[in-house]
Amino acid sequence: MENLPQKKEKLLLEAIIEQSSKTELIKSYSTLSLEKIIKEKMPSIGLLAKVHGEEVIENAVGVLISDLNESFDKNLSRNEIEEIIAEITSGFSRNLTLEGIYLTCREIKYKNDTIKITVNKVLKALANHQNNLMECAMRINYSNHLSHKHQGNRSNNDALEKQANQIAKTMYITGKLK
Q1: Where are the domains of the chain?
Q2: CA distances (Å), 127 to each of 5, 38, 97, in order?
Q3: What is the band of 169 on the pLDDT scale with cuts at 50, 70, 90?
Q4: Which of 41, 122, 133, 139 has the fewest Cβ atoms surrounding its Cβ within 10 A?
């Protein structure tokens, strides 16, 4: 039987489109981390918008921000939610992933000092997420670089050892090494 690839975790967009409940999202994405977002190469909202359309992505972001707002007794107005959605779905924020936005919203909920959310707090948290994601990507790349470098050294050492053995054999045969 053919080796089938392991089923990847469903993209958050699919779960939102299927109208998964808030608790289903929490259960499904409880292990979400920066590393996972990077290693699984989750698509940016810019890419998702090209594939699924702007409106679908704006609605998906709206679901995430509205869920966050519900956790804080709906202290954001509809206009403030729409402002956050517009900020996220335009400009540099299009590099964010829905999973990254979800992770950021979850982190905002866990902060002890967050009593009331504001547009500014949400946007700052997303900017921090973006910075943390870049730092994490650099750490992963550096770690991969080091592991490949050491693997390369081992193969270089093996090659050098073979070459040295061949030279020694040649020198022994020709009588230059006794």
Answers
A1: 12-174
A2: 35, 17, 13
A3: low
A4: 41
Q: With contact defined as beta carbons under 8 Å apart, do 77 and 178 qualify?
A: no
Residue 39 structure tokens: 């290693």
Q: Taking a C-beta distance cutoff of 8 angstroms, is the pair 98, 16 a contact? A: yes
Whether residue 163 is predicted with pLDDT greater than 70 in this model: the reply is no
Whole-number Å distance between alpha carbons of 101 and 108: 11
What are the phi and psi torsion angles at 44 (to 5°)?
-75, 160
Helix 54-71 × helix 45-52 angle, to 10°: 130
Q: String of b and e for 93-116 (b: at least 16 CB within 10 Å)?
A: beebbbbbbbbbbbebeeeeeeee
Contact 44, 96 (CB under 8 A): yes
Q: For residue 29, how far is the Cα from the chain centroid?
A: 13
Tokens of 67: 């869920």
Q: Is the pTM of this model over 0.85?
A: no
d(CA 21, CA 3): 33
- Summarize the confidence of residues 84-92 as an average pLDDT: 87
Residues 16-62: pLDDT tens digits?
888 888 888 888 888 888 888 888 888 999 999 999 999 999 999 99
Distance CA 60, CA 63 (A): 5
Q: Who's near 49: CB < 8 A, 6+ residues apart?
A: 56, 57, 89, 94
